[in-house]
Amino acid sequence: MEKIKSLAVSIQNVRKEYAGISVLKGLSLEIRQGECFGLLGPNGAGKSTLMKMIHGHVIPTSGELYVMGLNTQFQISEIKKKMGVVPQEDGLDTDFSSLENLLLYSNYFRIPKDIALSRSEFLLSEMKLLEQKHQHVETLSGGMKRRLAIARALLNNPQLLILDEPTTGLDPQARLWIWNYFEKLKLQKTTILITTHYMEEAEKLCDRIAIVDHGQILDIGTSAELVQKHIGQEVVEITVGNEKNYWISQVQGKNLEFQDYENKLFIFFKTSDDRQSFIQNIQNTHYLVRSANLNDVFLKLAGYQIRGEG
């Protein structure tokens, strides 16, 4: 129990079934206090169910789930006092202004009015929204709404901040600004749990990453660890066209790891010397040499199949 108390999140053999269908299949995970932890997976992998469990909207069919040392099945009210959530859908009240949204939300935590006002104005300033504090939410841009949702999640000074696809739909400038702000929160030792479909976002922000699919964790590690373990140092992309079978036999003959997708082969190399000896034999075929990255890991573990929403 002492170890559980020292962790931000402890998930022990958690299962979730809906109408006899397993969504989470004995999943176990530990998130350390003060780290930024990324949860990656294709649509339908079980990420949303897991996130909803952590903030108390879904109860596990079996297993144990603790947040800040508290059991989510019996102590969810206490947990919510220590947690901030930025959901995929902002859920802002369009009938009210930016400031009014924050003040109304502060009532859930019974924050005294004077403190709620000063904290709301501070967070609006932090989010570059002070000039829009009396502006109705429906008139704000998408980036402004997202920043307001983040301000709302920070009202109660949470120990754990949950970010569910926090920058989806934002332009590059807004995304970069939000990334920089999350990095400031990391310096303050706020524990952050983030789901994202942007591999660059996960590489930039996350101390560790779990890749999830079919309700199970496929692997956990830092971005660098996952890339080195599953891919290596470099990737050669070959456009094979009608010669796919020939190139597959060539790659298999050299005992190289690869992925086959439509008219391309993605071949993985542990060192640049290995890659150099291979490409010397490539003639009259288009190829690209690049550094291995987290996107390669994701596609190798979760596959290339396009999934439905969920």
In short:
With 310 residues, the chain is of the alpha/beta class.
Explain what you see.
The chain is an alpha/beta fold and 310 residues long. The chain has 3 domains: 144 residues, P-loop containing nucleotide triphosphate hydrolases (Rossmann fold); 65 residues, no CATH class; 61 residues, 2-Layer Sandwich (Alpha-Beta Plaits). Helix content is 36%, strand content 27%. The protein has a 6-stranded mixed β-sheet, with helices on both faces. A 4-stranded antiparallel β-sheet has the order 2-1-4-5. A 4-stranded antiparallel β-sheet has the order 12-13-11-14. Strand 7, helix 7 and strand 8 form a beta-alpha-beta unit. Helix 9 crosses helix 12. The longest helix is centred in the middle third of the chain and has 16 residues. It starts with a helix and ends in an 8-residue tail after the last helix. The model has no long low-confidence stretch (mean pLDDT 91).
Write the topology of this structure.
Layout (H helix, E strand, L loop, with lengths): L1 H5 E12 L2 E12 L3 E5 L6 H8 L7 E6 L2 E2 L4 H6 L1 E4 L11 H9 L6 H14 L15 H12 L6 E5 L7 H16 L3 E5 L3 H7 L2 E6 L2 E6 L1 H8 L3 E6 L4 H10 L4 E4 L2 E6 L2 H8 L7 E5 L2 H9 L8
